[in-house]
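During the first year of the project, the team set up a workflow for recording each protein of interest as an amino acid sequence followed immediately by a discrete structure-token representation. This format lets reviewers and collaborators read both layers of information side by side without switching files. As required by the reporting guidelines, we include two representative entries from the current panel. The first entry is reproduced here exactly as it appears in our internal archive.
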Amino acid sequence: MNELRQKKFLPRESWGVLFCLLFTLYTAVIPFVRSFFLVELSYNEGWNVYNVERVVNHQWLYPEAHGWTTNNYPALSFFVLATLHRWTHDYLFTARMLSLLSVLGCSVLTALIVRRLTGAGRPALLAGLYCMALFCTKANIYVGMDDPQMFAQVFFLAGLFVYVCNRRSYTAIGFASLLFVTGGCVKHNLIDFPLTVLIDLCFLSRIRALWFALCGLLFVGVAILLNIHFGGPYFLSQLLAPRLYDLSRSFGMLVDVLGPELLPIAAAVYMAIKVRNNPELRIAAILLTTSLGLGTYFIGGHGVWINAYFSCFMATSILLGLFFDAIPAIEPRWTRGYLEKWAAPVLFFWLMIPLIMLGNVNPVVGLEESASAQARFQQQVALMRSQPGPEICESLLRCYFAGKPFLYDGFNTTRMIEFGKLKEDVIINRIRDGQYGAIQLDGDMKREMKLERFTPGILAAIQQNYFVRMQDQDVVIFFPISNRLPVPSGSAEQNLVGRIK
């Protein structure tokens, strides 16, 4: 009878893996399907589309030191997407599919790293699934988003995998440094991975650490020259464009981002402490330390968000894989094996907390909201397209689909004005002259949100010279006052405009 049951049903330990797999698929429904809807997932999407279009049209990405469309990302992702665009003929779709493939690639590489470190398949599978589920719950907006960071993380994880496969081989070390620099040509501030390898090499062999550093410096030098050659003469000036920094914001965001992940983070920290003196496994502990420290530092910069902790998410996933592998050896007798059976399902189900906080528990409702947002997006774009002339958009993706040129990058322009690199009077005078056929702001009319992408002077000029033509839950679209008859004082339109003061 027992033999029959074993043949008929899955082994006990497999039920936990099955639950984790089904939970991961459940969390992936909204971000994966949503990527096929024509909605804006973030400000960066329109910005990236415009820059890829520049490459396709053989224009410089970095034509001047300080401009109204500053590009503070390296060039590689734009050239990759421009090449893929030849087959897809759709900038946004191409980038979103690359993002989805990158998330899958990161999960697979996480599993391969754990498999290499432990030699076990089940912990590796769980680590890869947890990486996917973590991104689909905590950072689901980046899954399927047109943003280069997930693509860059693939190269950094690949470099780490090459290193752990043979950390004593000079060839492997050199190849790992090449992969790190290639990833840096996609997103340049993910330095926690090469720093982790350098620290680990310092424990292993100072000669190999020096070799890694020299290879990295050589490849970085070549990468800078290539970015200048293909991207434009002011690559370094734009890449190092200044931004405001707030240390108090770092600690606030640390609590906001990692607070809901308290139990998985605690398990990862516990495992990091356990393996810190193990020459084969300590690299996972080093990665958690460096990614947590650098992520907390970087997230204090204005415009930096949860993506500062992506490396920390991957370090957590790797350490949880080590934790699942070590449970049989560290589990107390009094738990009677329950820890081995239930640890993975409990840690996965813990991700329901961020899922609930973000309101993504019901996939059907989430996708219905995306469909409604797509219909509103198309109406907004149609209205903006009907206006002749250039336009200013807080949502650059709307300006792009309205067929408007890329003339104003709200976030980077505001930073340049704050640091005295650009003069806001240029934009203010154009607004006063009614040179923009329409100006679109996002639906959240709070002043502190608007100051991320518009200076007070520009907002005041919009209020004085433009009127509200359309408003819904997503956007407010302004037309020049010269295009309409006077509106009586106290009207709903005037009251709405006054809210951005």
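The second entry, processed by the same pipeline in the following quarter, appears below.
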Amino acid sequence: MGYFFRRQKTKSDYFLGGRSLGWKPLTLSVMATQLSAISFVSAPGFVGLREGGGLKWLSYELAVPLAMILLLTTVLPILYRSGVVSIYDYLEQRFGRTSRLLLSVIFQFSRAFATGIMIYAVSMILQSTMGVELWQSIVIIGVITVIYSLEGGMKAVVYGDAIQMIIIVFGTILCIYFGLQYIGGIQGLVSQVEPERLQAINFSSVGTNGEGFGFLPMVFGGIVLYASYYGCDQTQAQRALSAQNPQQLKQMMMANGLLRFPITLLYCFAGLIIGTFAKTNIEFMNAIPDANPDWMIPIFIINYMPHGIIGLLVVAILAAAMSSLSSTINSLAAVTLEDICRLKDKKLDDKNYLKSAKYIALFWGVVTLVLSFYAGDIAPTVIEAINKIGSVFYGPILALFLMAVFDKRLTGLQINIGLLSGVIVNLYLWLDVPSLFWFWWNLVGLFVTISVSYISLLFTSKQRTPYQPDNSVNTSPILNTKDIVILMSAFVAMIAIGLAIPNWLS
């Protein structure tokens, strides 16, 4: 695919696929990055074995349809129609270069670091289950991914992700099928599963007493988290900017809002089945290291699946890792090159732009792989830290984009003060209020950033220069009432399914 899609002529061809991509491959690509190798092994491990785990993992998905409504009625249509390659370019148009560079730097280094940790984690799984050396698995995953994403640009990334997503889903279905054979089918699952693992939705916890996964924080904090991730993170937003037209963009985001839950439900069902098998099979249970349920799926694949299927499922894990890495490389290159051009106030012709893009993509590929080699000393604590760091920044970042779209009075001075305040408050909550579930940080950061920005406007209004909007950009909505009803219905259906599962399996 890298060879087939190698002929690009412009930066839009390389970073946005020439804006010729339909909603179907884009949807699969986005989900392949989100439902990655870590999800393929960690979600079933959490559901099936982890202490305090179970189907509460499904509550992570509740806010996704609501976040799609928020994005499609606010940020994404404006970003798409503005014609930018880097979404942080839009922030510069509204608030100045400082705001753009601040968020751009945060994105580049945090995303490269997080992806390096993910590649390391997958490599450790392959090393422990198949005897593949750590450096060999990193090289296999990294070099091949760098080559095809470097040559083929966004089209190779998207179509590669689409194929990888199909492999992952098929692999999960195979795990469910063979797992059921070992425990005696659905009846065996019903009779042997631990009842406490069947609770998917928890209305009793509000996330303020040290408990997580309560309904309110997962919904309200989740709306902010997912809206910020899908609309204000370059790796995801770049896929949206690659759509053929606003209608394809809408269909892609709606499909993501509707299909993520069924796929996650497959992961969770696999976890229930294989976790139940582990609890009733001493040999299997003893093969899983204590306090490391993430090894459950890889050990099950290697020891309890037929030959041929084993190879396919190991490919599924590799494919999931590659999908995350390829999108990261392309997005990092897009943001870095656009920033460099801005800093130097320099416009490159198409030939030199594409040449520079591939050099920068190679640079970020190497950086990410190097971080993978050195992740071993920090992985046990950093994986948790990365998840929390995301929630420190997601709320303030979404606030910036919302204010950029809705209020033309604000300038860079006010929103930078607001951004800094939102991040500082979230850091305080992290360090001094451990009883507050970290999903709430997303909502707190959003409101603090917006509030402080408007308070700052009262004291600095005389220093501002009114923003002159580009009236040529179409601001008409792309989401109609029917679409909103569909997404809201999906949200209600998720709650209904979550509440019904304990009755179905008891």
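For the second entry, the following points were noted during internal review. The chain has one domain: 11-504. Confidence is low (pLDDT under 50) at residues 378-383. Both points are flagged for discussion at the upcoming steering committee meeting.
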